[in-house]
Design goal:
This protein is mainly alpha-helical. It has one domain. The protein contains 10 helices and 2 strands, in the order H-E-H-H-H-H-H-H-H-H-H-E. A two-stranded antiparallel ribbon has the order 1-2. Helix 1 packs across helix 2. The longest helix is centred in the first third of the chain and has 26 residues. The protein is globular and about 50 Å long. The structure holds zinc ion (2 copies). One zinc ion (ZN) binds next to helix 9.
């Protein structure tokens, strides 16, 4: 029971940081927030991603490349050039590291407009922090795991951020239905996306990249959108008005 709670908690808290902060805020600027909240969510994404911490600037740049070159050779993570998901993940890792360490050339149009917090990165992106979090996950399992097979879940904790990315990028451009005839291979994999918090509405999202609600039809559910609306109402964020809304 404790393991199930820990796994589910880690899954959703980390995924929320990715979809709300890294994706919808850092990469797409769907809403604005004060410097305080920007720092708050930056630290939140470090703590919840823990050992698999992803830098917001590199995430935003990679993601903007994904939209600009979706399912072509310049896309950092299309499933259509790889036989299985691990080689796609490895390729994405190479592009990510190149952008993060400044060894890859980044087009001007992808730069600017993402949060940076070098003081946090110095710790969050260090081996010390990654090993500390990995040690915490292991300690939790040592204390609470009742069966040996539960330890098989540990690699998911270690790689939580990239695991979420791989599921979305692989399934969301390969399996499901399409509402819009986009040039890429994007699909909507689920109609009620509680598993990936709306991220699996890839076809809807590629059609209208600035729209904070990833659901497009009345029968589709993006569970993060009501939370975004609530945060907008209570003043944590401010939604950026978009044309042709349908909000
Ligand atoms: Zn996509
Ligand atoms: Zn996007």
């Amino acid at each position: 029971m404790a393991i199930l709670l820990f796994f589910t908690g880690h899954w959703y808290l980390s995924l929320f940081g990715q979809t709300f902060y890294l994706h919808r805020y850092a990469a797409h600027k769907m809403f604005t927030m004060s410097p305080f909240w920007e720092k708050f969510w930056y630290i939140y994404s470090w703590v919840t991603q823990g050992s698999s911490y992803l830098n917001a600037r590199a995430y935003a740049i990679l993601h903007r490349m994904h939209h600009a070159y979706s399912d072509t050779e310049k896309d950092p993570h299309t499933p259509h050039f790889f036989k299985e998901v691990f080689s796609m993940m490895w390729h994405t890792r190479k592009v990510y590291n190149g952008v993060l360490h400044g060894t890859a050339e980044v087009e001007e149009k992808f730069l600017k407009g993402y949060p940076t917090y070098p003081a946090v990165d110095r710790i969050a992106d260090s081996w010390m922090s990654r090993l500390f979090f990995a040690g915490l996950y292991i300690a939790f399992y040592v204390v609470f795991a009742q069966y040996w097979w539960m330890y098989l879940l540990l690699p998911v904790h270690f790689l939580m951020g990239p695991v979420h990315g791989a599921i979305v990028n692989w399934a969301g451009h390969k399996y499901g239905y399409r509402n819009f005839n986009e040039k890429d291979q994007s699909k909507n994999t689920l109609i009620f996306d509680f598993l990936m918090l709306g991220e699996l509405f890839q076809n809807n999202h590629h059609h209208a990249g600035a729209r904070p609600n990833f659901a497009a039809k009345w029968w589709e559910i993006d569970p993060v959108y009501p939370i975004i609306k609530l945060m907008n109402r209570i003043g944590i964020i401010k939604l950026v008005p978009i044309k042709s809304t349908g909000r």
